Amino acid sequence: MATIHIEGIPQRRTSGDVLRWLVGLSNVRKNQIGRIDVDRSRVRATVEDAALDRVMRSLREATWDSRPVEAWCERPIPGSEPSRHLTQLGRLMKLEADAELSQVKEARSNSAGVGDDTSVHIGRLELRDREIGVGGHLLVALGKPGNAPIPRSRFSVGTPVLMSPQGDQSSGWRGVVSTLKRDTIQLALPEDSRVDDATARFQLDMTQDDVSRERERNALLRAQHASSGRLAELRDVLLGSRPPAFSNRTVDTFLDPTLNETQQDAVRLCLQAEDLAVIHGPPGTGKTTAVVEVIRQAIGQGQRILACAPSNLAVDNIVEKLVRHGVDLIRLGHPVRVLPTLWEQTLDAKVENHPEYAVARALGRDAAALLRKAGKTGRNTLPRDQLDMRREAYGMFDDMRRIEDGILQQLLKTTPVVCSTLTGLAPNLLSGQTFDATVVDEACQCPEPSCWIPVSRCNRLILSGDPCQLPPTVLSPEAARRGFAVSLPERLLKVHGQAVVRRLTDQYRMHEHIMTFSSREFYEDTLAAHPSVANHRLTDLPEVTGTELTESSVWFIDTSGAGFEEETESDGGSRRNVEEAQVVVTKARELLRLGMPPASVGVISPYSAQVQVLADSLRDTGIEVATVDGFQGRENEVIIISLVRSNSEGEVGFLADTRRMNVALTRARRLLIVAGDSATLCRHPFYDRMLAYFDEIGAYRTVWEEM
């Protein structure tokens, strides 16, 4: 028996429905089809080897209710490179899933209950409302009795949750938080969820992101078992068993006249690539600007593009730039995760603005009203009447979904650019669709399996990112040790070398003194500050008073010898240095007195405990305080870094991952201030070189000069 996977079937179909459909479609006998498992729009079925080819041929162009479906078969390739590498990724995903589950369980056991910011549980919730959102999600609103406020917790928009009857986690519905207000919390559940109106109280518990992980796992399986076709060819290129091909096509005219020579070279490579290209964009070099030019050039040639990134913020960054150039696009994803200014670009907005949607909206409204009526019991209401009302309501929902589905498919097929997070690529939305190219921005920020999700939907893959900045976040130390923290672009650099990569070298963010150390350490001293930023200073800004500080570009405050010892939190976790924090706070307040707007000053630290100390001290100023990881991809006129570590052993902890320091040092535009203990830092070769550089450019100060 062979295992086949089918994606994109209509919701609420049973295994019997699938069996009858397969038999009618492929003209095989019922007994040649084995076990069938249905999970919403996905099917996993076993088929006798003798019937396999006929079934797979019939599924190539198959539709169900006029909607295309996709199918693929698990065919083992014993001992092959695809089998080895992709199987290894699957194992590491399991380690990471176990680590995530342990973290959630630990947080749940440590939760102090109601009103605790660490809580991963909210109980005693009532059903307030429900409606069907665009894309078929059931939107359920919950609240506390008497409209009491929702207690503080770790829940936020996008948090995966389990909604279940109070005190009973054995049954329930998995979804994500879509809206969080003072007295209500709204969830987006799968459309086939049947929330029982009779349940008096519900509870919410934080869970793992099983949907994203399942999409990653299926992407790896599809690639691993592809025996022919474009997916198999791309897989072999990505794994290094086949060299990438390039054409000789040229770019007649660049649409963005501001592109520099290295950006133009990167765009040419991407348009010439038949399989794969990588844009290496160090900080401030206009990587996303080059990506946008690639997309605009491609759609100008009549191509369809799938534009992705690991995070909603990174996707919105692409969307904003494309919209500015008048590109017709659709932004997939829940609207609450999209910037409000981009609402009109979301799939929801485009569907709602479609002339045919008024009928679907009316059906959904009437169905929801009927369900509410069915949930209200009275002396004259019979159970059969309630059942009939529910059946009628669900039938109306089905009609609404059919209309909506037709609108969705028409929009997705006719729009040249579709934008989404990698794990937001829902198979039921994009079933049967292929793109000329997939572009993945910030591809170094996610584990490799995420980048495989769009590979089955494209003819070529274009990646952009910077492997010299922070790697993907990995919770499992064992998975990280075995390579799970290595991003796809980083691995491809080792597999194919410079043939598939173009590095951008002109940077438009930092004063040259801020840029130079990172350029030497991470980019072979190839970066060049554009004349517009090479010597810019705070005193070029209006209303900033000229002093030694505001005339400087880099300022290092050495706390060595001052007795500013680091502390470890009571639970043995993060570290802080309260005295060093006071030095940082003093400098931040001085900048405000000298005329710097609070929004133009950022304070960052590698340690979350130090961030909390700094945030408490600067709460009244309006200055943003964040971890280094949380500031990746962003910039500010002034950045102040608190390094925290100060100990007699010379231990620098996870500061030893110098890519984190590369991110920290390259966030500032005009002034970079670093506070740290040179006696501790100099024990590490990287920081010893950093201190020498600060001394070289005259940036060194002692804490005694600042007190």
Rg (CA only): 28 Å
CATH topology of the largest domain: Rossmann fold
Q: What is the CATH architecture descriptor of the largest domain?
A: 3-Layer(aba) Sandwich
Kindly report the average pLDDT value: 89
- Main β-sheet, in a few words? 7 strands, parallel
Q: Determine the strand fraction and express it as a percent band.
A: 15-25%
Number of helices: 22
Strand count: 29
The CATH C-level name of the largest domain is: Alpha Beta
CATH-wise, what's the superfamily of the largest domain?
Answer: P-loop containing nucleotide triphosphate hydrolases
Kindly, what is the distance between the CA atoms of the first and last residues, rounded to a whole number of angstroms? 77 Å
Record keyword descriptors for this entry:
Alpha-Beta Plaits; 37% helix; 707 residues; 5 domains; Rossmann fold; alpha/beta; 7-stranded parallel sheet; 6-stranded antiparallel barrel; Elongation Factor Tu (Ef-tu), domain 3; globular
Q: Would you write up a description of this structure?
A:
It is globular and about 85 Å long. It is of the alpha/beta class and 707 residues long. The protein folds into 5 domains: 2-74, RRM (RNA recognition motif) domain (Alpha-Beta Plaits), CATH 3.30.70.330; 111-208, Elongation Factor Tu (Ef-tu), domain 3 (Beta Barrel); 212-324 and 420-504, Rossmann fold, CATH 3.40.50; 329-415; 507-706, Rossmann fold (3-Layer(aba) Sandwich), CATH 3.40.50. Residues 112-117 have low confidence and may be disordered. It contains 22 helices and 29 strands.
